[in-house]
Amino acid sequence: MKRLYTLVVAIGALAACIGGATVAAQQADTTGNAPRSAGASSVNANMITDEDISQAYLYLLGRLLVTRQEQLDFKEGFRWNELVHRKPGAVDWPNPNLDVAYSEAWVAVDENSCTIVSVPQIKDRYFTVQFLNGWGETLANINERLFPQRPYGDFAVCLRGANVAIPEGAIRIDLPVKSARVLARVALGKDRDGAVALQHEFRLTPTASPKLPAVPATLMFEPEKLPGVEAFDSATTALDSEPDLNPGLQSMQVLTRRVAEAATNPAGRARIDHVVRTRAMEEFGKAGAIIGHGTIHDGWTRPDVVGEYGLDYLARTLVNYGGIWANIKPEVLYYRCASDATGAPLSGDHVYRLTFPKGVLPARFAQYFWSVIAVDDKRFRVLHSPQQKYLLNDAEGLTYGADGSLTLYFAAEKPADAPESNWLLTPRGTNYRLTFRYYGPLDGVANGTYYPPPMTRVQ
């Protein structure tokens, strides 16, 4: 598949040519439906290439995955500027970090109101408060890495340029958007009760009464059954409700609106649906193997970009699909494995070993801590475990070999030679993926020269 960077340049030239043809596409109603002119669409689908349709879909899908989660959150009972403190492990989105206690919120700010984020003093334990926009782009973090002089206390999260009085002593953080997703993460470590106690000390307090944004009423769908042309029925609502602030992607918004308008014509709609369900989904599947433009070695995929995506909207969409709310590389680096050393898919019907020699133990590459989880290969949720053990890391009290090596085991039943602490249950009849996380990546993980060893099937 062609690199998206070349495509974005080409679309820039297209945007200059279509001029007024996009005006109708920008006249949105409030239902999430694509705009319709008095008669047929003014855009002829035959003037849009299959590649344009495919890329517009892959671009738009990244936003729809976020608006889908936003709708689910508010249906669950979220309220603007109020934290939801999750019990450890009690999150339901793709590829969650189960090594941390999560607190979540949607924050709204405007020209007259900021939101105060109160952060407890935390020592000798990883934490961060992450802010993301409606495309899954990380906007800011609060932690001791970014605020070494005082990583606790009150932080005033404000709309950039807002002339708002903030409490004395509060540190101001400007956001380029009026609403953001917030995730506070506190490492569980060996003291889970301590992490939960700290988690409940985080607070949000608006300084006034901001105008609350509407939750975008875009198409709802299940991740294992992605939408076809109907995705473009929500294009206007999706794009109007959240600008894409990444420089260079304005032309993708123009193209997406153009395809959405063409989809209002029955003949054009049929063609667009066919292209989406064949070409776009084929490209999406192929790109998923390396998370867009990442690299793969010994079955482990390392993304090229994560948390901040620049022009790489394909990687952004893939991350939103397989692991929404990903943070930036300096905070955590993710490796994904879906196959063993022979290239066969990982299956709960087999037994695998993952062995790290003494000199390259996982702790060498993580300033804070590391963990590995297993998720199913359809919805990317953690595998069922009667013991409620969903990951392996040093906090679990791992057993190291006499030579200093570390071997982790993945199987439906504990292998006879496996220490209980080193075994993760992977149920029979399930194909799965592993996600290896390095918090505060160091050395070869930070610079991209290291990959975990291959998964070795032993039975």
Give the arrangement of secondary structure elements.
Blueprint: H1 4-18, H2 23-26, H3 50-76, E1 84-85, E2 100-108, E3 115-119, E4 127-132, E5 138-142, E6 153-159, E7 171-175, E8 179-187, H4 192-199, E9 203-206, H5 235-240, H6 250-262, H7 266-288, E10 295-297, E11 300-302, H8 313-323, E12 332-337, E13 352-356, E14 366-376, E15 391-392, E16 406-411, E17 423-425, E18 432-441, H9 443-447, E19 456-457
Parallel strand pairs: 6-7, 16-17
Antiparallel strand pairs: 1-2, 2-8, 3-6, 3-9, 4-5, 4-8, 10-11, 11-12, 12-18, 13-16, 13-19, 14-15, 14-18
Brief description of this entry?
This protein has helices at 4-18, 23-26, 50-76, 192-199, 235-240, 250-262, 266-288, 313-323, 443-447; strands at 84-85, 100-108, 115-119, 127-132, 138-142, 153-159, 171-175, 179-187, 203-206, 295-297, 300-302, 332-337, 352-356, 366-376, 391-392, 406-411, 423-425, 432-441, 456-457. The chain is of the alpha+beta class.
Structural features, described:
The protein has 459 residues and is α+β, with helices and mostly antiparallel strands. It has 3 domains: 4-69 and 220-288, no CATH class; 84-206, Domain of unknown function DUF1254 (Immunoglobulin-like); 329-457, Domain of unknown function DUF1214, C-terminal domain (Jelly Rolls, Sandwich), CATH 2.60.120. The chain has 9 helices and 19 strands. The chain has a 6-stranded antiparallel beta sheet. It has a 5-stranded antiparallel beta sheet with strand order 1-2-8-4-5, with helices on one face. A 4-stranded mixed beta sheet has the order 7-6-3-9, with no helix packed on it. Strand 10 and strand 11 (300-302) form a beta hairpin. The chain is globular, with a radius of gyration of 23 Å. Residues 9-39 have low confidence and may be disordered.
